[in-house]
Amino acid sequence: MSAKPVDACALVPYIGFGHVWHTRLRPRRHRFIVPTFFLLLPMRTLRVRPEAAGVLALNRPGALAFRDADHGSGAGMAQGGALAWLEELLHSAGIDDALGEVWLQCYPRVLGYSFKPVSFWYCHRADGSLRAIVAEVNNTFGERHAYLLDAPRYGQELRADKTFHVSPFCTVQGSYRFEFQRGGPHGLRSARVRIDYHDASGPVLLTGLSGRLQPLTAASRRHALWRYPLLSFGVMARILWHALLLWGKQVPFHAKAQPPLLPITRSLPPDRPS
Questions:
Q1: Under 8 Å CB-to-CB from 181, ≥6 apart: which residues?
Q2: Are 254 and 243 a contacting pair, CB within 8 Å?
Q3: Helix (H/G/I), strand (E/B), else coil: 20
Q4: Are 167 and 152 within 8 A, CB to CB?
């Protein structure tokens, strides 16, 4: 990927069509892979030029929409929106050089509903180089937590302690292994994210998301809505269905842990064991 800033004509919303995969290795094997789509949004451009959203309904009702209140502190545009939350998060962590574009990879609202298990904020320097990635995680209890991955590189594995309750079939211990890949000029042709969960005995879950990117147009929006009309409802339905399957396989159930005291969990140094 080039570290040069993205051309202004490319600073538009993108849509990715691909798959989500999930493989549990222990204590019972369980695997699924499903087709999906997601958005990749130039958030600083949209703040200055909201008309760049094009066919995406930005902070308003629409068949395919994005709302700032679905991210960060949950504040709307009156409080600066999700981007203001991210900028404050970076500043509080001592990261003041991520002054370039911020791309947000997330699920949209479809027909007014959205549940976003995880979203990714790609934060760049003014020269276009990648400075940080924030993985923003939601659980089904309405709680949210951010994993700050400092000084990342595409294709490099990054690790962070697991501190936030997501699934009752996993304990809040061990660590996540992240890997990000972006293809094409400025990383706007494809996106792939791997998130594996390890405990003290080794890998437990192997999960990820990948897709081919294209500009969000009336045609690509129509394709998404016709092919996946219940995307957001399907995300929640699959969570509940696979929880039932795991319960049927007698995978141990763990009570919900308290949220972490700190709102951010930072990535581990490369030389520190997890």
A1: 154, 155, 190, 191, 192, 193
A2: no
A3: strand
A4: no
Query: What is the Cα–Cα distance from 75 to 98, expressed in whole angstroms?
Result: 22
- Residue 5 CA to residue 256 CA, distance in Å, equals 43
pLDDT (tens digit, 9 = 90+) per residue, 176-192?
999 999 999 999 999 99
Q: Which helix (H) or strand (E) holds 42?
A: strand 30-42
Amino acid at 149: L
pLDDT of residue 94 exceeding 60, the answer is: yes
Q: Which residues pair with 266 in a beta bridge?
A: 148
DSSP result, 123-152: EE-TTS-EEEEEEEEE-TTS-EEEEEEES-
Q: What share of the chain is helix, strand, coil (3-state, %, to 5)?
A: 25, 35, 40
3-state secondary structure 166-209: CCCCCCCCCEEEEEEEEECHHHCCEEEEEEEEEECCEEEEEEEE
Q: What is the mean pLDDT of the chain?
A: 93
Give dist(CA 105, CA 192) in Å, integer: 11
Side by side, the strands of the sheet bearing 157-161 are: 157-161, 175-183, 190-199, 202-215, 14-24, 30-42, 102-106, 118-124, 130-138, 144-150, 264-266
**DSSP one-letter string for 56-80:** SEESS--SEEE-GGGSTT---GGGT
